[in-house]
């Protein structure tokens, strides 16, 4: 157990729907990062939050949004889902900067049918 | 924008053999990371390389970093089946973001 908790582990939903993925960072970590892993695109950085504030943004679609709450857990909201959104979504956390790398959660496998 | 390329993308090797995975990156980065991923599982941190010439070893795996050549290597010594996994390198971009390569899928055959 890495200490980074993601729920749910698996999610199957229909096109056009909206889902919320949840992440609780490792105790003491203030930064949360979201990555999407797909076969064709590999691991793509989506967004980062630090202590409740958005810090960096990557290749995140406008249909996707995220936030980090005062208790430091984070949620990634995916809306108007398309078949191409099917992927593994990872959350990672770090204490402050990413200098020593991230600790990853076990991921949420999203399947859009 | 940092780009990270790994090669080979697929590697099939016999137990007991040695091999090296290469990781090239496109712009200056002062840190390089190696992760391991088993099928359907999370990414596990293997090595963090923070300076030119850094070398780290853990068991049968050794990683090195040459920032002047923009190259990191992951050397596998006397491979065993348990090392079968996908290995990712990632470069640090800015203070927060890691940019990952596409991964090298390693299969070690008996």
Describe the model.
The complex is a heterodimer of chains A (113) and B (110). Chain A is an all-beta fold and 113 residues long. Helices cover 0% and strands 53% of the residues of chain A. In chain A, a hairpin with a 3-residue loop joins strand 4 and strand 5. Chain B is mostly beta strands. Chain B has no helices and eleven strands. In chain B, strand 7 (61-66) and strand 8 (71-76) form a beta hairpin. In chain B, 36% of the residues are buried. Chain A binds chain B through residues 2, 31, 33, 35, 42-43, 45, 48, 50, 55-56, 58, 90, 92, 97-107, 109, and chain B through 31, 33, 35, 40-45, 48, 50, 88, 90, 92, 94-103.
Name its key features.
heterodimer, A: 113 residues, mainly beta, 7-stranded mixed sheet, 4-stranded antiparallel sheet, 0% helix, 53% strand, globular, B: 110 residues, 6-stranded mixed sheet, 5-stranded antiparallel sheet, 11 strands, 58% strand
Total beta strand runs of chain A? 11
N→C terminal distance of chain A: 30 Å
- Give me the Rg of chain A, rounded: 13 Å
Give a count of the beta strands of chain B, DSSP E runs of length 2 or more: 11
**Cα end-to-end separation of chain B:** 41 Å
Count of DSSP H/I helices of chain B: 0
The percent range for helix content of chain B is under 10%
Element order of chain B: H for helix, E for strand: EEEEEEEEEEE
Shape of chain B: globular
Low-pLDDT stretches of chain B are: none
SS-derived structural category of chain A = mainly beta
């Amino acid at each position: 157990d890495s200490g980074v908790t993601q729920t749910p582990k698996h999610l199957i939903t229909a096109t056009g729907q909206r889902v919320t993925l949840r992440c609780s960072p490792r105790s003491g970590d203030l930064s949360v990062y979201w990555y999407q892993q797909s076969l064709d695109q590999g691991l793509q950085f989506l967004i980062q939050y630090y202590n409740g504030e958005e810090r960096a943004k990557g290749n995140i679609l406008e249909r996707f949004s995220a936030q980090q709450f005062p208790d430091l857990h984070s949620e990634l909201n995916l809306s108007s889902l398309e078949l191409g959104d099917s992927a593994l979504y990872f959350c990672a956390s770090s204490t402050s900067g990413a200098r020593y790398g991230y600790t990853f959660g076990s991921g949420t496998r999203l399947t859009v049918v | 924008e940092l780009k990270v390329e790994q090669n080979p993308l697929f590697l099939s090797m016999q137990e007991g053999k040695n091999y090296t995975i290469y990781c090239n990156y496109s712009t200056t980065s002062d840190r390089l990371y190696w992760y391991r991923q088993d099928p359907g599982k999370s990414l596990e941190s293997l090595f963090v390389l923070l300076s030119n010439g850094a070398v780290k070893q853990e068991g049968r795996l050794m990683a090195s970093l040459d920032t002047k050549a923009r190259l990191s290597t992951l050397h596998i010594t006397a491979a065993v089946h348990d090392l079968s996994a996908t290995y990712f390198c990632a470069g640090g971009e800015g203070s927060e973001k890691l940019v990952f390569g596409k991964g090298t899928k390693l299969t070690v055959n008996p």
